[in-house]
Amino acid sequence: MAQSAIRLERTQREQSALSTLWSWLTTVDHKRIGKLYFFTSLFFFLVGGLLALLVRTQLAVPNNTFLSPDTYNQAFTTHGAIMVFLVVMPLNAAFFNYFVPLMIGARDVAFPRLNAFSYWVFLLGSLLLLTSFVVGEAPNAGWFAYANLTNEIYSPGRNMDFYTMGLQVLGVSSIASALNFVVTILNMRAPGMTMMRMPLFVWMTLITSALLLLAFPSFTVGLIELMFDRYFGTVFFEPAAGGDPVLWQHLFWIFGHPEVYILILPAFGIISEILPTFTRKPLFGYPFMVYSGFAIAILGFGVWAHHMFAVGLGPVANSVFGTTTMLIAIPTGVKIFNWLGTLWGGSIDIKTPLLFAVGFLGMFTIGGISGVMHASVPIDYWQTDSYFVVAHFHYVLFGGTIMAIMGGIYYWFPKIFGRMLDDRLGKVHFWLTLLFFNLTFFPMHLLGVDGMPRRIYTYSEEMGWGFWNTVETVGAFGLGLSMLLLAYNIVHTLRAGERAPADPWDGRTLEWAIPSPPPVYNFAEIPEIRARDPWWQMKRDREAGRPAPTPVRQPAEPIELPLPSYFPVMVALGLTIAAAGMVWLIWPVVGVGLAVTLIGVVGWAIEPNHPEAPHPAQPTPGEFRVQHPASD
Question: For residue 101, what are the domain limits?
Fold first, then answer.
């Protein structure tokens, strides 16, 4: 079978040095890149969480002087940027990288070196952004960077220069990664895997990637205009010279509201994989789940101005955007009812992944209900820029996205690392997270209704906000401690955890058909897909005596996978050096960075992608291969 045969794994050098630093720097294996995203974003999660605790400590009591005003501004601005761009997006990317090729029956992504490049650009751009803390000039105008707070009058240091250059570098990573997954999903599915047989997680990855490709350019344009205003004296956002500060809000939120769905749609995909597995029944209403994902993506581009009702857009614009904001609740509600339909009547196995999935349903629904309130312009006038809004988006992004990601970690950890996380400790982690999350963020609804503004540095005792702020701070520290349980569980499991079988959950999708962790080439032979839940179908076929996956010692033909390469990290380093030179306006450094980038791009272009001759594959024992009957 020429089309399903393969040529081999890495080179002999990478095979013999899998644990070396060089092999990690040059790897193009989608699974290793997924691991790099995973651990890097967990580290940034720790950093962002510590900044949140600083913010909560400052607000714990009235008239507090724990932080200076400027330090407070830097802390809450960088907390928001880290959590959105350095935690949630790359944690989703970790799952994209590791599992999308496995779920569609592919050996890797379409562009392995571009995939490696996207990770290194993400890492180096993140480090550039966080270097601002080292020099005491972290971004300080809010993660949304509203004009005119970002011009040189109100932000005279390098604070916002780190923001503009760091996020432009990170944007390169996002665009490269999104392009890769669109091409991979559309062109590299196993035979028989039609679009309507793809797992929901793959669908959500495809839609998320399309959103990134369409939404990020507007933010990039805004960042470039802000950079020109700060460096070269242009006046895009200066009203006294004919510019318009509201232009920034449009450019930001045309990206910023699809960004909410870029963050939450992968969580929808994760939940749609967990619930059917632990209820032992197919996902309820699969076609409606797919179409509602499309509807959310399309409507997501028509709701951005509900963030701007207070700027004076006028009754027509307010009515249009209020209507579209109400409409987008419909496909979101479809998903919630379909998840409930999946749970209804299922043979439920209560494991930690399922608990986080059910927790997601409750917390995300609360966040969605409070979001629909903001579609009403008069209510939004009252609630905008108050702590009610802070509560809303934390219920969506933490109660929604982070809860789902935690479920995904417990669900897929055995496949990634070959060891089972402690389920009892995981359940303790879930209940503590649920308790302290609500203790932290639910009182913010009450403070918002009572008039407490967002981005406030301190408040007087007469306002009466002290009690609930103290409660929130206690909840925040409890939430931080609950996350340490996850860290302990991961470290302990990696050192001495129970070995995981290939299929510990009786999974539905193709990643559970191969060993844990998977071999470097994923599948000994590309499977032929005949059902929407292919691994369940294959197991039923085997039980019925029909041709089904059987263990083999090695693939029937040699395997070829692309060579490792150091050019992706070289190009990423060059871009970051150039961006760092722009932050400090040291033009020779900019020139060096561009030269390194150019050399790396040329080397990348002429470097061979595959070894001259294939090497024999050595699959691990217990690997599965689909036996095809002659009649097929």
Answer: 30-461+473-519
Q: Which of 31, 79, 392, 445 is catalytic?
A: 79
pLDDT score at 560: 77
pLDDT in tens, 99-116: 999 999 999 999 999 999
- The continuous run of DSSP H or E covering 420 comes out as strand 419-420
610 in active site: no
Catalytic residue of the set 14, 108, 229, 273: 108
What's the number of domains the chain is made of?
Answer: 1
Q: Give domain status of residue 59, yes or no.
A: yes
Look at the block and give the residue holding tokens 């779920």.
103
Could you give the C-alpha distances from 565 to 34, 252, 471, in angstroms and in order?
17, 36, 51
79 is catalytic: yes
Domain containing 440 — which CATH number?
1.20.210.10
CA distance 632 to 628: 7
pLDDT tens-digit profile of 339-374? 999 999 989 999 999 999 999 999 999 999 998 898
Residue with tokens 């590299």: 188
* Burial classification of residue 98, based on how many CB atoms lie within 10 Å of its CB (0-12 exposed, 13-18 middle, 19 or more buried): buried
Which of 526, 521, 514 has its CA nearest to residue 191?
Answer: 526
Q: Which of 30, 197, 250, 335 is catalytic?
A: 335
Give me the amino acid identity at 583.
V
Query: Is 174 designated active site?
Result: yes
Share of the chain above pLDDT 90, in %: 82
User: How sure is the predictor about 325, in pLDDT bands with cuts at 50, 70 and 90?
Assistant: very high
170 Cβ contact partners less than 8 Å away, ≥ 6 residues apart: 85, 86, 121, 122, 125, 126, 129
Would you say residue 315 lies in a domain?
A: yes
Strands 550-551, 624-625: pairing kind: antiparallel
Kind plus residue range of the DSSP H or E element containing 183 = helix 159-187
Report pTM.
0.92
Flag whether pLDDT at 513 surpasses 70: yes
Residue 268 lies in a domain: yes
